[in-house]
Amino acid sequence: MASTLVDGGVPHSRHNAKLAKRTSAWKPGILPFLIPLVLLTLFSLWSYTPSDSPLAWLITICWALPVPGVLVSVQGFLLIRRRLRKAHLMIPPAPVEEDFMIVLVPTIGRHDTYPALERSVLSYVEHLPEWFPYMRVDVLTEEGCEAAERIDALAATSPLIRVVTVPKAYETENGTRFKARANNYAHELRIEEGEALDYVWVLHMDDDTGVGPDTAASLAQFINRQRRATPEEVKHMAQGILTYPRENAVSMLTWFADAIRPADDIARFRAFTGLGTPAAGVHGELLVIRASIEAEIGWDFGPKEIVEDARLALTFCRLYPGRSDWFNGRCYGASPVNTKDFIKQRERWAWGLVALCFNRKVPLRYRWFLTICVTSWILGPLQHVGTIVFVAWFIGDMNTSPVTQSVVILWSISFAYVIWAYWEGLRLNAIASVNGKRKWWEPMAVLVLLPYFSLIEGMGGIKGLWKFIRREENKFVVIAKPA
């Protein structure tokens, strides 16, 4: 893969100067945030005209809403810069000699998802054993899946790969369905086989997401660090960065749009998960957790749960506050093959997250921040200045100022962060690619396309919200996975 940077900036292959130079350049930039912030603030203060119209109140609400999430996100990437400055204090990566690693890869087992599954599983077998001499890859499938023979043939290529088949007749106590049901079967199997132990770690991966040498080294560094931690400091769960190499993308448009995801990992997720309490949720790939902790929480969240990873995170917040961490390793996924699948993917996430925000089984103190983030996401198109100008033109009131001048400063902070997120996210995805660089025109193209990205993100969010309001039956939609 692209690089060998591990937590604290320690390169594994020191002889490979090209890779080391590429990863050392990754440090999150602050100028892509500060420059837009200054320019937007000056412009918005200059153009402000007082108003107390209904449109002004709508603008005030929409522009103020994202600010808590944005401030948390800014804290997150500043924490990374701070940690990289303390690289000399980090424990150098070394093989994990005392712990056992289980890589769990759930797959729907369709023929259109198999090529990505094969790419991902082979990357685990190639890169992880050097750092994890005691490990296994469990490919989790459903009985009778259409690609079963191909998956069995893949397992035969390495003694490290095991196929775990979920029987069709399997049911959980609470009637959980979809991916959570499969994960629950695997967790019950680990308990039965005596593997639900403190020194057994489960690395959750998606079937289209591979790893590289940097992933393995950084993950090993995190786990070894827990052996040296005091009982008050030891961590039980951690999350890394999800990136999208250019060569895994079918559509350049969706590849550009997915620049927001690695940026979210180095910002919002870094802040919450990295500070010990993953109240912003987690994603289901490059998520590592002790088998003993997962055995206590389980995945049996009920039949309506389709964002099982976020639900696991909020339950973890309640049971183990302060016990999660973030590590500076990357995994390598693939963007949706087209805009239709992109919207479909976001629709499922929004559907499940809105339901989670209203789930009273989760205490409000653990879901209030997630609720703000989800609401801000769904209302994203209304926060864009282009949308506001269009609405103002349509109703014949061209005063697009909020009620108070202070709100334009909040808007400037939020919009500057959006620009930073796509700028830095694109850089991360480019670094994760084979050539390791952005093309000269790509950053400008991404900034020009921001209104379009806001639209398709919002469309997915609104469609998910509408399905929740209509109380449609939950569906775990799996899009096609590129090889």
TrEMBL record:
Protein's UniProt keywords contain ATP-binding: no
Transmembrane segments: 30-49, 55-80, 368-396, 402-423, 444-466
Keywords recorded for this protein, A-Z: Membrane, Transmembrane, Transmembrane helix
Record has Membrane as a keyword: yes
Domain Glycosyltransferase 2-like: 201-413
SUPFAM superfamilies referenced in this protein's UniProt entry, alphabetically: Nucleotide-diphospho-sugar transferases
GO molecular function: beta-1,4-mannosyltransferase activity
Cellular component GO terms held in the UniProt record: cytoplasm
PANTHER family from the UniProt entry: BETA-1,4-MANNOSYLTRANSFERASE EGH
Name this protein carries in UniProt: Glycosyltransferase 2-like domain-containing protein
Upper lineage: Bacteria, Bacillati, Actinomycetota, Actinomycetes, Kitasatosporales
